[in-house]
Amino acid sequence: MNKLLKWIFIACASVAVLMVLAILLLPRFVEINKYRPLIEERVTKATGRPFVLGGELDLSLFPWVGVALSDLSLGNPEGFTGKAFVTVERFEVRVKLLPLLSKSVQVKKFVVESPRVFLEKKKNGQANWIMAQPGSPPTPPQTTEKRPAPKEEPASALPVKALSVDQFAITNGLVRYRDHGQDLEKELSGITLTLADLSLENPIRLKFSALADGHPVALDGKVGPIGKEPGKGTIPLDITLTALEEITMTVKGAVADPVRTTNFDLTLALSPFSPKNLMASLGMPFPVATADPKVLERLSLTMILKGDPGKIDVSGGVLGLDDSTLNFSARAREFSKPDLAFDVDLDRINLDRYLPPASPKEDKPTSPTTPPPAKPAPGAKTDYTPLRKLVLDGSVKIGTLVANRAKLEKIQMKIRGKNGRFDINPLGLNLYQGSIASRAGLDVRTDTPKVTLNLQAKGIASGPLLTDVLEKEIIHGTLESNLKISFKGETPDTVKKNLNGKGYLKFMDGAIVGIDIPGMVRNVKASFGVGETPTAKPRTDFAELHVPFTITNGLVNTPGTTLASPLLRVTAKGKTDLVKETLDMRVEPKFVATLKGQGDTEERAGIMVPVLISGTFARPRFSPDLKSMVKSVLPAEKELKKIIKNGKIDKDQLKKTEDRIKDLFKEFRLK
Predict the structure, then answer these.
(1) What is the end-to-end Cα distance of the chain in Å, rounded?
(2) Cα 186–179–175 angle (5° rounding)?
(3) pLDDT tens digits, one per residue of 426-438
(4) Judgement on whether residues 169 and 49 belong to the same structural domain of the protein
(5) Residue 472 burial (C-beta neighbours within 10 Å; 0-12, 13-18, 19+)
(6) Which residues contact 92 (CB under 8 A, 6 or more apart)?
């Protein structure tokens, strides 16, 4: 028995020795390079493009399984300008043999020297990186036969239990991209990638550097440890990206279960940099021109990202832009039917600084006979399907905002939306010593959007507001208003035709600039273009101006506008057509006391000088209502009876009537 065991042991040992000798001696006695044509033929057949092994093959089997290749070249298919798709100057890998039996990978060397990848896209969109399978059978025609869906198998971890790499390096690489359709060419050169301490149990040190079109880009940091079950568990990250000598961004956090669910919890921090300096370093002009050339000089960003392929949460967000700071958070769910929420808080911003610079004004002669420019043909209707799917819940706060020179403060807005209906409530802000409280709605459940707006304003200094926004003096006074407006449509013309609503505007203790109603009475000829024009800037002071209105399909009706002052009462009635942009108004002033102190010493009590306003928005016309003026001085029926009594004319009463008519028209006598 002992002899049998002895001979079995001797036999096994002999076999083992012979196997080791075979592994050691086989590469020495077998000429591996004679198989290069066969390898080139097989690769060419498999890829459908020429493959060349220009250098010698070096093969080892024990104790390291290794192969070294040089001057590799994989060509392009026919029709591309470049000859090669991929070239490698040298490739070498050596792996320990026996540990592979226990799924333990021990790599002594993995080195790729001077890899070159040439990506090319034709004008017709064909790309050379699409690997067609030569000789592959045609796709079978589709049938209507229902087949059971394949069962989804749970993702498994990587088939490796242990991993250690002594040397991992890619040096002097290059990737060049050329798109003939867009006449575009990009290059990433000088690519160097090294991985140190590459194993499953320890953090992997990563270093990457390259030149993007001649500008430096680098990554430096740690990844891992990956863990004994690669693809499962949590993988820490701590990576810093530097680019173009301007951008520095760090990414810290972890990625969990990357093979199965890919959860992530990352903190991103983009250090302050100048977008303008960045573009200058690229040798490119800045893509936008701004009214203030000093803006877009500072940009920074930090935020925390958490989520998985089905959702994402953003918290702790801080965006710095020049002297503005935006704090934000956001959430997104169900990307096919987006469920979005956000919270934004901006301290201050002047939007006028970021607008395009004002173009120089050109005085172009206009003629009333010149026909208006042709309106552009209506385009395709807007698709509101994405908005109908959207679920939205957000809030916005802004400390100070300047827009179109208007200064707004303490802006607060809450917006909610679902199934194509969106409500903004509340929408409040402070401006020019007053405040606005409003709510708005948008309904896109149909192809024609509908908008509603309710607005209440109190205590607004209208003069400074209009001066800042319009750069004109129109009206002064403290404004109070209440508006309810609705409209539907997409184009301005459609909106005006479907504009409806009601409300009022009330101005207290102010003045209308550009119209001098008292002057129209004192100097009727000058006021209506007959006599001399006053040199002083016209204005009409008032204690209260109340403008109630209704809007019906773009037609604004003002049934009872009133203006009151200690000396003057004015009523106005009429209509304004927003569609045709025409005016049809009648202003009726009445003096209730003397005009002393306003450039006149005569008693004017009871004198009526109605004013007609007509024409268009661009060319309004003002004229006296002569018909009403004559009516106002002609005797009434009772007075006529007094003048004509018993068939006789009362000469005294007739004289009074004549004097009133003469007083009315004496201002129209030309000198």
Answers:
(1) 153
(2) 40
(3) 999 999 999 999 9
(4) yes
(5) exposed
(6) 58, 66, 67, 68, 69, 109, 110, 111
> Counting Cβ atoms within 10 Å, is residue 548 exposed (0-12), middle (13-18) or buried (19+)?
middle
Range of the domain at 628: 476-633
Are both 563 and 608 inside the same structural domain?
yes
Rounded to whole angstroms, what are the CA distances from 395 to 341, 346, 638? 8, 11, 69
Digit-coded pLDDT (tens) for 599-613: 444 444 445 567 788
pLDDT digits (tens, 9 = 90+) for 107-118: 788 889 999 999
624 inside domain: yes
Q: Residue 146 falls within a domain, yes or no?
A: no
654 and 548 part of one domain: no
pLDDT in tens, 36-92: 788 888 888 888 888 888 887 777 766 667 788 888 889 888 888 888 899 999 988
Structure tokens, 157: 């971890």
| Alpha carbon distance 251, 305 (integer Å) | 10
3-state secondary structure of 381: coil
Do 536 and 659 reside in the same domain of the chain?
no
69 and 184 belong to one structural domain? yes
DSSP 310: T
Vertex 83 angle, CA 82 and 84, to 5°: 100
d(CA 569, CA 657): 25
Helix axes 651-665, 626-633, angle to 10 degrees: 160
Q: By three-state DSSP, how is residue 182 classified?
A: coil
**What phi and psi values does residue 251 have, to the nearest 5 degrees?**
-125, 115
What does the DSSP 8-state code read for residue 127? B
Q: How far is CA 170 from the centre of its chain?
A: 40
CA 203-206-210 angle, 5° bins: 175
**pTM here?**
0.72
Q: Is residue 92 part of a domain?
A: yes
Question: Looking at the structure, do residues 629 and 646 belong to the same domain, yes or no?
Answer: no
> What is the Cα–Cα distance from 458 to 428, expressed in whole angstroms?
12
d(CA 115, CA 71): 10
Q: Which of 244, 197, 250, 245 is nearest to 220 (CA)?
A: 250
Could you tell me if 487 and 542 lie in one domain?
yes
Domain count, the chain: 3
Structure-block tokens of residue 631: 């009516």
Q: How many helices (H) and strands (E) does the chain have?
A: 11, 33
592 lies in the same domain as 660: no
In a domain, 152, yes or no: no
